[in-house]
Amino acid sequence: MAETKLKVLVFFVGTRGDVMPGVAICKALEDRGHQAAMAVCPGVEDSVRAYGVRCFVVGRVPFTWRNDKKVMSPEEVGILRRSMNAKEFLSVANKHGVSWNLEECLPEALAGCRDLVDQEDYDVILCNICTQVASHRLMKNRPNLKVIRTTFTFWNIATSAWAPGGYEMSGGFMNKLKHLHFLFCVFMPFIFGSNIFKKEFEELKKITGIDHDVGLGFFKKLAETPCLGLWSPNLQDRPADFPQNMQVTGNLFLPQLPNWQPSGSMEAFLQQKPLLLSFGSMLGVETLEEAFIQAAKRLGISVLWISDKKRKEQLITSTFDFNGGEPGQEIEKGVFQVDYAPFDYLLPKVSLVVCHGGAGTVFRAIGSGGSCRKWAEDFGHFEVCLSLFAR
After folding, report:
1. Is residue 57 part of a domain?
2. Cα distances (angstroms) measured from residue 278 to each of 159, 246, 334
3. Which parts of the sequence belong to the Glycosyltransferase family 28 N-terminal domain (predicted)?
4. Which of the residues 14, 28, 266, 356 has the least number of beta carbons within 10 Å of its own beta carbon?
5. What is the mean pLDDT of the chain?
C-alpha cells in the first residue's frame, strides 16, 4: 500500500516561541515527502520564509503581547498570573482584558485560513494552543479536512500521573479529581465568563462557512481530536491513562538558519563561556534581567544577553526578522547584548542558561549538555503524527 502524501497547513499564532516550532514541523513533513506551508499573522513571515518554508500571511492584525505591569496594579498582576479562583481571575481579566489580543487578530486570520483551505485543498490543519478552537471551526462542511493539535504540555488532560499546576500533588485518583475540578471550576468558567472570549465569539459569528457552536459539544469534539505533545518521552513519559489521541512525538528544533553568521566580536566574547540570559518575548522583565546581570558580575561571570531593546521599548513582541537585527556589541565590560542569535549556534558555547522556561529554550539547552543530547535530538515518534494524519 502506497504511503499517503498529504498537504498540511500549519496555522500557528503567538509570539516567537509559539510560531517558530511550525518551521521545524514543516521541514520534518517535507523530509517525509509531504507538502507543508505555514499560515501566520503579519510580522513573522520573513523569519518563516528565511528557513525556506512556504508562508501565507492571514489577516491584517499582528498578534501582540501586553506588558501587564504598565496597566495593572501589582496585586492585579499577581491575580492574573497565579490565581486559581475563577471569580477573582475574571474580575481582573474582564477589567483589563488578558495579556494578548487574540480577539482582534484571530477572527481575521481564521477567515484567511478558510479561504486557503478551500483554494488549495489542504488535507490537514496543524494548530497550536492559540489556534486550536479556531481551526476546529473549519471542519464544518469539510468532511475530508483533519485537524491536529500540538502542545508543549498536556496541562488540561485528566491523569493520575500528576495534578494540574497550582494544586498540591496527591497521586493517583486524587490527581484526576483535581484535573476535573480545574476544568469545570476554573477553566470552563473562565472561557464562558470572560468578556474577551465573548468578544472573540461575536467576531467569529461574522465569518461564513465555519462552525459557530460554542457549547460543550464543540469542546468535546475538540478534546477527541489527535493532539501531539512536542517533547521527548525520555524527558517525561506519556501517562498510561491518557486517551489514545494524546501522543508524545519527541522534541523538535529549528534547523540551521541559512546565511546567518555571528559577528567577530560575538565569537570572541563566547570564548569566555558566558552565561546566556534570554527571556524571549516576555515583557516587564527588566528588573529581573538587571538582577541576573548584577549577580553574574559579582560572581565574575560574563553575560551574553539576548534582548531586542527596540521591540521592548515599543512593546512590540509579534514582529521579528531573524535575517535582520544588529550584530550585537559589548555594552559594558562582561555584558554582550544582541537582538537575536540562533540557539543551535549559541547554546553549546555557553556555560549556563537563564531563561523564562519556554519549551524551545529549555529543551535546546538540555540537549546542548552532552549526556542529554540523545533524547533532545529524539524525534523518531513523529511517525505517530503521520499515522494520525492519514486516518
Report:
1. yes
2. 33, 31, 16
3. 9-55
4. 356
5. 84
Question: Which of 95, 115, 141 lies at the terminal end of a domain, its last residue?
Answer: 95
Question: For residue 367, what are the domain limits?
Answer: 264-376
Residues 85 and 138 both lie in one domain: no
521592548: which residue's cell?
Answer: 312
Task: Return d(Cα 261, Cα 238) in angstroms, integer.
Answer: 38
Q: Answer whether 325's CB lies under 8 Å from 342's CB.
A: no
Q: What does the alpha-carbon distance between residue 68 and residue 345 come to, in Å, rounded to a whole number?
A: 33
Residue whose C-alpha cell is 529581573: 288
pTM of the complete model: 0.87
Question: In this structure, is residue 2 part of a structural domain?
Answer: no
pLDDT digits (tens, 9 = 90+) for 140-158: 889 899 999 999 888 778 8
21/165 same-domain check: yes
- Kindly tell me the sign of the dihedral angle through the C-alpha atoms of 90, 96, 99, 102: positive
> Is residue 54 domain-shared with residue 71, that is, in the same domain?
no
Parallel/antiparallel/unpaired status of strands 55-57 and 35-40: parallel
SS3 assignment, position 277: strand
Question: 325-368, pLDDT tens digit by residue?
Answer: 567 889 999 999 998 888 888 888 998 889 888 877 888 887 77
Q: Is the pLDDT of residue 384 over 80?
A: no
Last residue of a domain, one of 95, 115, 137: 95
Are 116 and 48 part of one and the same domain? yes
Q: Identify the pLDDT of residue 254.
A: 84
Q: Looking at this protein, which amino acid is placed at residue 389?
A: F
Specify whether 228 is located in the same domain as 303.
no
Contact indicator for 251, 376 with CB cutoff of 8 Å: yes
Please check whether residue 105 lies inside any domain of the structure. yes
Contact 322, 50 (CB under 8 A): yes
Answer yes or no: are the C-beta atoms of 109 and 59 closer than 8 Å.
yes
Q: Tell me 100's DSSP state.
A: B
Q: Is residue 322 part of a domain?
A: yes
pLDDT score at 25: 93
